[in-house]
UniProtKB/TrEMBL annotation:
Entry-linked InterPro entries: Cyt_P450, Cyt_P450_B, Cyt_P450_CS, Cyt_P450_sf
Family, per entry: Belongs to the cytochrome P450 family.
Keyword set, alphabetical order: Heme, Iron, Metal-binding, Monooxygenase, Oxidoreductase
Annotated protein name in UniProt: Cytochrome P450
CDD domains: CYP105-like
Lipid biosynthesis keyword on record: no
The UniProt record lists the keyword Zinc-finger: no
Pfam family, one: p450
Length: 425
C-alpha cells in the first residue's frame, strides 16, 4: 500500500510541476519537436527512417534545431561518432549541463551513476564497478542465466494459444538476471520494468522520463539502506562491504539504478526484436537451431543491426573544436545516433541487411570510449543463452499476427516492440 501511495504522490507531483512550469522549455512537449530533430528516435519497423541515412550521406555531422537556445548537432556517421564519443576531455556528459540550461530539468533530478558523470567522478565509480563485470566474475552467473531461460521456456510450454514473447520471455529473463546480480528482491520486477520502460520513452515528454528515474531511485535508496544494515552477496552488498566508506547512499543507488535499467530494458528489447528477426529469416532460424558456432557472430551482427539504444547520452562541448571538418563551439550540444552510425556504408556493403558472416569493424551498439556500457558482456551472455534455447525448444514457433500489425515504440531512446504474439506449435 505504501508503494502504491508513493507512486500516486509522485505522479501527481510531476503533473503539478509540468502545469506550473513557466520558465524555460517544457520538456513535456518533446514529441512536438521538428521531425529532423527527432529522426534518430524514429524507425520504420526495424530500420532507422530513411531520412537518417540521407542525412548521414549528405552531412554526417548536421545542425539540428532545439528550442533551448542551445546550438545542437546530430552525428550520424560511424567515424564521426567514434571521434565524439572517444573525446572524453573535449566533451562533458555531466547532468548539470542539462540542469543549468533552463530546460525544465532540476539538479535534484540527477539520477547519478556512470552515464551522467564525468571524470574524476566517473573514473572513481567505474573503477569500483569494473571488477564485477569481468568475464571471470560474470561466469558465476552462467548457470543461473541458463536456469532462468529454461524456467521461462517451461512456463511458455504450458501455455495454451498465442504467447506474448515480450511478457513471457524477453522481459523476465534480464529482470531476473539483474535482480540476481544486484541482490534485490525479484518480486519487485514489475516496478523495475515499468520505470525502466518509462524513462526511455519520450513520447509523453521527458518530464515523465525523469519522473520514472525518481521513482526508481526512491525504491533503490530503500534497498541501499537495507544493504548498509545487512550486506548481501550481490553487487550492492559487495560495494557496501568493500567500498562502503567511499560511496554515499545516492551514489550507491545511482550505480544500482544504472545497472538495473541499463541491463533490463535494453536486453529485453534485444531479445524480442532479435527473435522477430529470426522469425522472418528462415535460414538464420535454422542455423541458430542447428549450429552452436553461428550463435556468437549472429548476436554481434544483431546488436549492430538493431542497435536498440538509439542515441548516446548527450555530450556538451567543453571547448571549441573541429570534428571531421565541422566546427563545434564550446557549449554546443552533440547527439550521436548509434543506430545511424551502425548502418554507415563506410562499414561495408549492404549494412541495411543482417549478415552474420560480414567482417565489419566493431559496432557501436554499446557506445564507445569511457562511457561504453559496462554491462555489455553480461547482455551478450544472456542473448547467447536465450536465442538458441528458445528456438530449439520451439522449432515450429511463428508469428501469431502479421508482422505489419505489430506495434513498435514511437519515440524512445531504447527501441522496442510493445507485444510479440507467437504460436509455439
Amino acid at each position: 500500500m505504501s508503494n502504491l501511495r508513493s507512486n500516486i504522490v509522485a505522479w501527481l507531483g510531476r503533473k503539478y510541476f509540468s502545469r506550473i512550469q513557466k520558465n524555460g522549455f517544457d520538456l513535456s512537449k518533446m514529441s512536438f519537436l521538428p521531425d529532423a530533430t527527432l529522426a534518430p528516435l524514429r524507425r520504420d519497423g526495424l530500420d532507422p527512417i530513411a531520412d537518417l541515412s540521407r542525412t548521414r550521406a549528405k552531412e554526417p555531422i548536421s545542425k539540428i534545431w532545439l528550442p533551448f537556445g542551445i546550438n545542437a548537432w546530430l552525428v550520424t556517421g560511424y567515424d564521426e561518432t567514434k571521434a565524439v564519443l572517444g573525446k572524453a576531455k573535449g566533451f562533458s556528459s555531466d547532468f548539470t549541463n542539462l540542469a543549468e540550461r533552463n530546460i525544465g530539468v532540476a539538479a535534484q533530478q540527477n539520477p547519478g551513476g556512470l552515464g551522467f558523470s564525468d571524470p574524476p567522478t566517473h573514473t572513481r565509480l567505474r573503477r569500483l564497478l569494473t571488477p564485477e563485470f569481468t568475464m571471470r566474475r560474470l561466469s558465476r552467473l552462467t548457470p543461473r542465466i541458463h536456469s532462468i531461460v529454461e524456467e521461462r521456456l517451461d512456463e511458455m510450454a504450458a501455455a495454451e494459444g498465442p504467447v506474448d514473447l515480450v511478457q513471457a520471455f524477453a522481459l523476465p529473463i534480464p529482470a531476473l538476471v539483474i535482480c540476481e546480480l544486484l541482490g534485490v528482491p525479484y518480486e519487485d520486477r514489475d516496478d523495475f520494468q515499468r520505470h525502466s520502460t518509462a524513462r526511455f520513452d519520450l513520447f509523453d515528454g521527458a518530464n515523465a522520463s525523469f519522473g520514472a528515474m525518481s521513482d526508481s531511485l526512491s525504491y533503490l535508496h530503500g534497498i541501499v539502506r537495507k544493504q548498509r544494515e545487512t550486506p548481501g552477496d550481490g553487487l550492492l552488498g559487495m560495494l557496501v562491504k568493500e567500498h562502503g566508506d567511499e560511496l554515499d547512499d545516492h551514489e550507491l543507488a545511482g550505480l544500482a539504478d544504472g545497472v538495473l535499467t541499463g541491463g533490463l530494458e535494453t536486453t529485453a528489447s534485444m531479445l524480442a526484436l532479435g527473435t522477430l528477426v529470426l522469425l522472418q529469416a528462415p535460414e538464420q532460424f535454422a542455423a541458430i537451431r542447428d549450429q552452436d558456432d553461428v550463435v556468437d557472430p549472429f548476436v554481434e551482427e544483431l546488436l549492430r543491426y538493431l542497435t536498440v539504444v538509439q542515441v548516446a547520452f548527450p555530450r556538451f562541448a567543453r571547448e571549441d573544436m573541429e570534428i571531421a571538418g565541422t566546427r563545434i563551439s564550446a557549449g554546443d550540444l552533440v547527439l550521436c545516433s548509434l543506430s545511424g552510425a551502425n548502418r554507415d556504408e563506410k562499414l561495408g556493403p549492404d549494412m541495411e541487411r543482417v549478415d552474420p558472416h560480414r567482417q565489419a569493424p566493431s559496432h557501436l551498439a554499446f557506445g564507445y570510449g569511457i562511457h561504453r556500457c559496462i554491462g555489455a558482456e553480461l547482455a551478450k551472455m544472456e542473448l547467447r543463452a536465450a536465442y538458441p534455447a528458445l528456438i530449439r525448444r520451439f522449432p515450429e514457433m511463428r508469428l501469431a499476427v502479421p508482422a505489419e500489425k505489430l506495434s513498435f515504440r514511437k519515440l524512445s531512446i531504447v527501441y522496442g516492440v510493445e507485444e510479440l504474439p507467437v504460436l509455439l506449435r
